[in-house]
């Protein structure tokens, strides 16, 4: 339903508050249909009722139970490393009959999975035991047949069970008894402790042999690999045996009976092998079966999850409805965009039809004094810009939406700071790639930073395009210049001077300048000039002031659109007029002087001045500083006199300046007192009016005077809700209004100065950017070229060399890295943030209230997306 | 000194077409409004920027200070005879 309409970006949509009367049996399907469309934001009618006291609590519980089952199943599926396919199209919410089916199905699946995994665990632990036993036997065999001196003696003793004196002597003492042994496995990390404990318990009389298992075993319950070690411990006497067994239990060692004779052991091993093979077959069949079941489940899993999710959301929404006293219908309230009303009606009718209800749903349009939510339709292009604006504040209902203008002013101001053709191309290519392959790239999950870049791909694209244009105008491409149209400067310095001095300035007055400027942007000659910064500073500073005035005047003019729309015509006179006059007469005039100076003052040669002395005051020498003139104007002091020059740029400038200053300052009391006095007067008029004609509506006195002229024709017969701020204003006492207006005035006057100064960041950042890229070029790459080219200081080329080629190769990589990391990424980020600030503070503060709250419709799409991002 | 007419006319016409003529021929559709706004704002911002650049150089009060080697290269590459 996210259709985009003409002018939709300009303001938020008109909203209506609707009251819905739904048949209880049709309520579920109706709300489900609304959830598919996502056009209605429901209001909680039972805010004071506990969540667990509401009507559909048991249904929500059922959903919770289903979700639990689904979580269990998903866990099992993930354990088997089966890929869960993503949902291509979300299913509709299940109807009540489908819910019962789904419940039964999930119950069955869960039990099956439980049984399967139980069986699996049993089989696996059986398998593990057999395997361990096999290992034990094999290792024991190995130990006993080992050709170890000590062991030969021991094994002879044990297995032949011959009692000889020598053997008895070996064990020591007259302690009689057979040398027995236990064999088992123990987790590998416990071996050292186990060994030590055995030593202590037996005072060194237990002989322990161990061998680690080469391959890890699998834990039947968790599937984790565990490393184990086989051990055989020899002991003598029952006493020691019982102690040994206790230690084994304590260390979670598993003991296996191990026949003492070789042939018996071999027999057991053979038998074990057969059983293991059988078990293996059974196990693989079980696993196959489980795999089949899991795979079948995995296919459906996302569908089930979506269905349950939707169902739960519906019941949550239904919990916001009120039950009619007669229990015959559910009553709900929701905000709906005005032009979606017919869709709302159709959704409710469809919902009714789905359960065969014959009674049409009733939609009642309510009038309210409450502020409707702000709903701005965006498309994929405007979405990113809207996010930038909403990050500052969500717009008040129906006020002008700055995001629409931001689409261009944002990239433009960015490019003024970032202007470089080369860097612009880099940014453009990156964003172009994201926009071209957006369908494919959308599915990628490359982390949060990628999401930010991708979400703002159209902003970045425009920033790239505008940076390319600005780069052309600044004549900057990786800090070099293009000479497309032919420079306006001519080299006219005599040979003699060139041989005497190393640095020479071209004089525009004496034929160094052709007479018409470079057609587009700055002249390429400045790139290699020593006094480039002096020239750029002056140009960029003036450019910033002009842009500042234009941008802020634009912002203030937008406030008129707001006043007209909200029918607060008096604010145009008491707010807009003093504000715009104050700004235009001070800084607008300054911008005018900048342009005037550009046009009027010219470089005149000595000859020209000698021929026509009237030209002298308009020459280079007499050009005044605009900044000083402006400061003099504000300080009401006269310009300093220079011999042979006019004191002012044009006749009557002093008087005009003084008049401008006085008028601008007079605007301050107008701004300060105008509105409070107006409100006071109209309140008095209202009071007399009320005495004559008592109010039938208690609201009137509260709403104050503007209410009479404010009933909105758009709303038909309904009383238009007034903004919350409005309410506050009229409820306030006179002193409150006064304080409010005083703050507003002080803020505006101060901010006019500070905001204009704030735009100088355009100059500062663009200069910094240009200088940084200049430094990188000259300090890194140009040196490499000099080395590679074998270029001497006298400008002669002595031919390239191979080593130079390598140097260039390496240094180029270095230069690219720095260009992308520092100049494009870091500088780009900083320019972006400064642009954001210029919009949020300097531009939007002129007209944007931003006291609304966002429209959050009940929409399955949004709910499913939310849960997906949580996963 | 001053401006020459041709570039001023060309660039003003160019951005005038983008900002005034094109908005009228944007195809009807849901995005028409935003398209028009984008075109108008693009044209006005770009034209303003260009104009500032142009005006700043119409009557240059200072000249570029260059090294004598650059000056020689300039006269060789960009034309201009070296006076004796």
TrEMBL record, chain A:
Keyword Transmembrane included in the entry's annotation: yes
InterPro entries: V-ATPase_116kDa_su, V-type_ATPase_116kDa_su_euka
Residues in coiled coil: 99-126
Residue numbers spanned by region Disordered: 702-731
Keywords (A to Z) from UniProt: Coiled coil, Hydrogen ion transport, Ion transport, Membrane, Transmembrane, Transmembrane helix, Transport
A molecular-function term among this protein's GO annotations: ATPase binding
Pfam families registered for this protein in UniProt: V_ATPase_I
GO biological process annotation, one example: vacuolar acidification
Compartments reported by the entry: Membrane
Bilayer topology: Multi-pass membrane protein
Presence of keyword Coiled coil: yes
Membrane-spanning residues: 412-437, 449-472, 543-564, 576-598, 659-679, 802-826
Annotated GO CC locations: plasma membrane; vacuolar proton-transporting V-type ATPase, V0 domain
Role this protein plays: Essential component of the vacuolar proton pump (V-ATPase), a multimeric enzyme that catalyzes the translocation of protons across the membranes. Required for assembly and activity of the V-ATPase.
Family per record: Belongs to the V-ATPase 116 kDa subunit family.
Protein name: V-type proton ATPase subunit a
Organism the protein comes from: Frankliniella fusca
UniProtKB/TrEMBL annotation, chain B:
Membrane association type: Multi-pass membrane protein
Keywords: Hydrogen ion transport, Ion transport, Membrane, Transmembrane, Transmembrane helix, Transport
Naturally occurring in which organism (per UniProt): Frankliniella fusca
Subunit structure: V-ATPase is a heteromultimeric enzyme made up of two complexes: the ATP-hydrolytic V1 complex and the proton translocation V0 complex.
InterPro entries: ATPase_V0-cplx_e1/e2_su, ATPase_V0-cplx_e1/e2_su_met
Family, per entry: Belongs to the V-ATPase e1/e2 subunit family.
Origin organism lineage: Eukaryota, Metazoa, Ecdysozoa, Arthropoda, Hexapoda
GO CC, alphabetical: endomembrane system; plasma membrane proton-transporting V-type ATPase complex; proton-transporting V-type ATPase, V0 domain
Record flagged with keyword Lyase: no
Compartments where found: Endomembrane system; Membrane
TM segment ranges: 6-25, 37-57
MF terms (GO), sorted A to Z: proton-transporting ATPase activity, rotational mechanism
Function in brief: Subunit of the V0 complex of vacuolar(H+)-ATPase (V-ATPase), a multisubunit enzyme composed of a peripheral complex (V1) that hydrolyzes ATP and a membrane integral complex (V0) that translocates protons. V-ATPase is responsible for acidifying and maintaining the pH of intracellular compartments and in some cell types, is targeted to the plasma membrane, where it is responsible for acidifying the extracellular environment.
Protein name per its UniProtKB record: V-type proton ATPase subunit
């Amino acid at each position: 339903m996210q259709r985009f309409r003409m002018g939709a970006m300009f303001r938020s949509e008109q909203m209506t508050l609707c009251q819905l009367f739904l048949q209880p049996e049709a309520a579920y399907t109706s709300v489900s249909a609304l959830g598919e469309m996502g056009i209605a934001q429901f209001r909680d009618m039972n805010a004071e009722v506990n969540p667990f006291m509401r009507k559909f609590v048991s249904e929500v519980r059922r959903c919770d139970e289903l979700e639990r089952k689904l979580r269990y199943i998903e866990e099992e599926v993930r354990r088997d490393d089966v890929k869960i396919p993503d949902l291509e199209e979300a299913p509709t919410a299940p109807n009540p009959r489908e819910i019962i089916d789904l419940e039964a199905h999930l119950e069955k699946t869960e039990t099956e999975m439980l049984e399967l995994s139980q069986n699996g665990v049993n089989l696996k632990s059986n398998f593990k035991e057999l395997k361990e036993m096999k290992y034990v036997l094999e290792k024991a065999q190995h130990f006993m047949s080992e050709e170890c001196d000590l062991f030969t003696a021991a094994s002879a003793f044990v297995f032949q069970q011959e009692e000889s004196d020598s053997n008895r002597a070996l064990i020591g003492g007259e302690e009689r008894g057979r040398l027995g042994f236990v064999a088992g496995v123990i987790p590998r990390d416990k071996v050292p402790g186990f060994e030590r404990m055995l030593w202590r318990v037996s005072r060194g009389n237990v002989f322990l042999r161990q061998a680690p298992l080469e391959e890890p075993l699998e834990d039947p319950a968790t599937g984790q690999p565990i490393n184990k070690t086989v051990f055989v411990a020899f002991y003598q006497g029952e006493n020691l045996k019982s102690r040994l067994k206790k230690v084994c239990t304590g260390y979670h060692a598993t003991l296996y009976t191990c026949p003492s004779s070789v042939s018996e052991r071999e027999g057991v091993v053979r038998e074990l092998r057969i059983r293991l093979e059988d078990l293996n077959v059974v196990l693989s069949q079980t696993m196959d079966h489980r795999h089949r079941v899991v795979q079948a489940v995995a296919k459906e899993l996302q569908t089930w999850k979506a269905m349950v999710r939707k169902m739960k959301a519906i019941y949550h929404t239904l919990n916001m409805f009120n039950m009619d006293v007669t229990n015959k219908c559910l009553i709900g309230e929701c905000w709906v965009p005005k032009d979606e009303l017919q869709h709302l009606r159709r959704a409710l009718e469809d919902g009714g039809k789905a359960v065969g209800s014959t009674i049409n749903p009733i939609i009642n349009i309510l009038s309210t004094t409450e502020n409707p939510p702000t709903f701005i339709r965006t498309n994929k292009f405007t979405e990113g810009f809207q996010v930038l604006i909403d990050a500052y504040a969500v717009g008040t209902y129906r006020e002008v939406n700055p995001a629409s203008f931001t689409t261009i002013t944002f990239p433009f101001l960015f490019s003024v700071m970032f202007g470089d053709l080369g860097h612009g191309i880099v940014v453009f290519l990156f964003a172009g790639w994201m926009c071209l392959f957006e369908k494919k790239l959308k599915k990628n999950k490359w982390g949060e930073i990628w999401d930010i870049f991708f979400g703002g791909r159209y902003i970045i694209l425009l920033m790239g395009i505008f940076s390319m244009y600005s780069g052309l105008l600044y004549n900057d491409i990786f800090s070099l210049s293009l000479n497309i149209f032919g420079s306006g400067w001519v080299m006219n310095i005599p040979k003699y001077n060139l041989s005497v001095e190393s640095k020479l300035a071209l004089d525009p007055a004496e034929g160094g300048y052709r007479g018409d400027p470079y057609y587009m942007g700055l002249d390429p000659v400045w790139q290699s000039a020593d006094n480039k910064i002096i020239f750029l500073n002056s140009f960029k500073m003036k450019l910033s002031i002009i842009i500042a005035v234009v941008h802020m005047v634009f912002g203030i003019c937008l406030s008129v659109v707001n006043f007209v729309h909200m029918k607060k015509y008096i604010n145009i006179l008491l707010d807009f007029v003093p504000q715009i006059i104050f700004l235009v007469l001070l800084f607008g005039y300054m911008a005018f002087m900048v342009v005037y100076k550009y046009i009027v003052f010219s470089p005149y040669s000595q000859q020209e001045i000698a021929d026509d002395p009237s030209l002298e005051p308009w020459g280079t020498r007499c050009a005044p500083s605009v900044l000083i003139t402006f400061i003099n104007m504000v300080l009401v002091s006269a310009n300093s006199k220079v011999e042979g020059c006019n004191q002012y740029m044009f006749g009557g400038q002093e008087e005009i300046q003084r008049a401008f200053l006085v008028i601008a300052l007079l605007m301050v009391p107008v701004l300060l007192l105008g509105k409070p006095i107006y409100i006071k007067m109209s309140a008095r008029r209202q009071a007399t009016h009320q005495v004559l004609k008592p109010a039938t509506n208690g609201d009137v006195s509260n709403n104050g005077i503007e209410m009479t002229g404010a009933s909105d024709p758009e709303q038909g017969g309904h009383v238009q809700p007034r903004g919350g701020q409005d309410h506050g204003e009229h409820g306030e006492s006179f002193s409150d209004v006064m304080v409010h207006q005083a703050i507003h005035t002080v803020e505006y006057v101060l901010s006019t100065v500070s905001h204009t100064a704030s735009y100088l960041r355009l100059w500062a950042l663009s200069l910094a950017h240009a200088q940084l890229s200049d430094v990188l070029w000259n300090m890194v790459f140009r040196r490499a070229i000099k080395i590679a080219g074998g270029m001497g200081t006298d400008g002669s080329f002595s031919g390239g060399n191979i080593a130079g080629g390598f140097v260039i190769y390496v240094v180029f990589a270095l230069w690219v890295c720095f260009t992308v990391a520092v100049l494009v990424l870091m500088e780009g980020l900083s320019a972006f943030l400064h642009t954001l600030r210029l919009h949020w503070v300097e531009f939007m503060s002129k007209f944007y209230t931003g006291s609304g709250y966002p429209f959050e419709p009940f929409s399955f799409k949004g709910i499913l997306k939310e849960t997906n991002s949580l996963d | 000194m001053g401006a020459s007419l041709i570039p001023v006319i060309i660039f003003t016409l160019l951005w005038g077409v983008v900002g005034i003529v094109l908005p009228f021929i944007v195809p009807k559709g849901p995005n028409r409004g935003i398209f028009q706004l984008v075109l108008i704002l693009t044209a006005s911002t770009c034209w303003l920027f260009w104009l500032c650049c142009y005006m700043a150089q119409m009557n240059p009060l200072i000249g570029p200070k260059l090294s004598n080697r650059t000056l020689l290269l300039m006269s060789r590459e960009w034309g201009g005879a070296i006076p004796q």
